[in-house]
Design goal:
By secondary structure, the protein is α/β, with parallel strands linked by helices. Helices cover 41% and strands 15% of the residues. Helix 3 links the parallel strand 5 and strand 6. NADPH dihydro-nicotinamide-adenine-dinucleotide phosphate (NDP) binds next to helix 9.
Length: 276
């Protein structure tokens, strides 16, 4: 499995497996299938309500814990120093694991939900930093942070976030956040890399699929990889699990990367970190 180097010297797999809405038996089965196919990064979050199933899938796979990269996230309603620590312990209990490879602040506190939002983020971050030192987390990062949320955090943190997981797909790839993270040495993970399926219907993507003899989903994922991000596509469908992993035998030309960059707004979730 190809990996990328994080700013804290840990390695992260070049593609991950998303699990949002993969619940109950689907959660266990899809994680098992993904690990069988070769994925080694599984992305979950407390709010998905499937950490138990993800943990079960990882254990049932028989693959040693240290060979699987597990990510979870602290939900926006429990931000703060002690509540983030309690949330992490709960996540580890649900997963039945004694450490996470990556733990993220799922959404930043912002001016609409916290008067002292910058302090709430930095206090949450302090909990993550301490948990990393204690060995409960290997790498710590954020999700859905824009420059306006990152800057105050960077000004107060001891450890720079290793990752920022953001919405990133053809038609909405947030170049300002993407470029800012790269400038700061923060790796971008791409959530909804298929725009929840919407990008597969775009003409540019369809034409490139024909040109490279690949599926539309594979074109979207390869573009995310060629842009230096780690995409985390989700599917509970076995053929698609395999298809989405089969993206390491080709590369897009710079011209084609640029053409995807220019696709018009599509598939945007509508979720903005400074609005909800
Ligand atoms: P995706 O862009 O990964 O799209 C998932 C949808 O696309 C599903 O409906 C799936 O269907 C379908 N699909 C998957 N592969 C294919 C394929 N090859 N061909 C056709 N259709 C396909 O969206 P997600 O929102 O799930 O994002 C991915 C992951 O990112 C999440 O699961 C989660 O782990 C993470 N995430 C993080 C967020 C954050 O705030 N940090 C927010 C949202 C997501 P089916 O399953 O029926 O096969």
């Amino acid at each position: 499995m190809k990996t990328l180097l994080l700013n804290d010297s840990h390695q992260i797999p070049a593609i991950g497996f998303g699990t949002y809405k993969a619940n109950k038996q689907n959660g266990v089965d899809s994680v098992l299938e993904a690990l069988k196919v070769g994925y080694r990064l599984i992305d979950t979050a407390a709010i998905y309500g499937n950490e138990k199933e993800v943990g079960q899938g990882v254990r049932q796979s028989g693959i040693p814990r240290e060979e699987v990269y597990v990510t979870s996230k602290v939900w926006r309603e429990v931000l703060g120093y002690s509540s983030a620590k309690a949330a992490l312990d709960k996540t580890l209990r649900h997963l039945k694991m004694d450490y996470l490879d990556l733990y993220l602040i799922h959404w930043p506190a912002n001016g609409r939900n916290h008067e002292n939002w910058a302090e709430v983020n930095s206090e949450t971050w302090r909990a993550l930093e301490e948990s990393k030192v204690e060995g409960k987390i290997k790498s710590i990062g954020v999700s859905n942070f824009w420059k306006e949320h990152l800057d105050p955090l960077l000004a107060t943190c001891d450890i720079v976030p290793a990752v920022n997981q953001i919405e990133f797909h053809p038609g909405y790839w947030q170049p300002e956040v993407y470029n800012y993270c790269r400038e700061k040495g923060i790796l971008v993970e791409a959530w909804a890399p298929l725009a929840k399926g919407v990008a597969l219907k775009n003409k540019t993507i369809q034409n490139l699929a024909k040109k490279y003899q690949k599926s539309e989903a594979q074109i979207c994922l390869r573009w995310a990889i060629d842009r230096g991000t780690v995409p985390i596509p989700k599917t509970i469908t076995p053929e698609r699990i395999k298809e989405n992993f089969d993206v390491f035998d080709f590369k897009l030309t710079q011209e084609d990367i640029d053409a995807i960059d220019r696709t018009p707004l599509m598939g945007f979730s509508g979720e903005l970190p400074n609005e909800w």
